[in-house]
Structures are given as structure tokens and as C-alpha cells.
Amino acid sequence: MGAKTAGARLEERWREILSVHARTLCEIDRALHPHGLGASDFEVLDLLATAAPEEGDQCRVQNLAGRVHLSQSALSRLIARLEKDGLVTRSVCAEDRRGVWVTLTRKGRDLHTEVLPLQRAALARALGEDAGATDAPAGCVPPPR
Description:
With about 140 residues, the protein is mainly alpha-helical. The protein has 5 helices and 3 strands. The chain has helices spanning about 5-30, 40-50, 60-65, 70-85, 105-125; strands at about 60, 90, 100-105. Strands 1-3-2 form a 3-stranded antiparallel β-sheet. The longest helix is centred in the first third of the chain and has 27 residues, at about 5-30. It is globular, with a radius of gyration of 18 Å. Residues about 130-145 have low confidence and may be disordered.
């Protein structure tokens, strides 16, 4: 058998990246599911906690959209769910009525602090030494909702 073409090597590498991504999301979803969160929910809470470190700090939804790998409509639905659960509040930007601010509530900040070690441990498991495994973890739980 001959050497792989550059295109075949790229395709193989791409599939490895997709596999690691899927495995990692599944591991995070499984770890956070008992707390009513999925990987994308946590990502938004984590970005808000980082971008707005003080209670009451706000972040524009459009700034989150550039960092969360969701469509604008999916992100809006996710933020609406987080708001319904009391984890964030939304408000219209006074300077630009089209803009929307999101603020992490005390409940959201507390939940983020509680689950942060679980998310980091899930990352370590998924991206650790045995991250080369090709199977998804047993008991993969879909995101809640």
C-alpha cells in the first residue's frame, strides 16, 4: 500500500478533531447533567463569569455569539432558558435598542462556581492521556432540555 496523500492525511486529522470534540462535549454533558446544565449552557455561564467578573457586570449577546459555537438563534434560545432558570437576566442596550445585555445572576454565579471543577475534570478526562481513544464514553447523556 502506498503512502497517504496529503488530502487523505488532512481528512484523517479532521475526523480525529471531530471525534475529540464530540467525545469532550459528551463527557462535559454527562458531568453537568445532574446540575441541569449542558456543555453549551456552561460555556455561556463561564464566558459571562470571565467577561463580567463582578456581580452586576454585563456582557453584550453579540460578544458571546463570537465566542460560543452556536447560531445566533440557538444562542438566543439558550440564554432564554438560562434566564427562565434564574441564572442570567437580559436587558436592552440603552444606546443601541437592537443590542441585548446579559448579566449573570447570583444564582448563576454560584452554580458556575459549583460546577466549574466538574467541567474542568471532564475536560481533563476527555483531553487527557487517553484522549486518543475513538469511542464515546459509556453513558453519554444528551444535554438537558
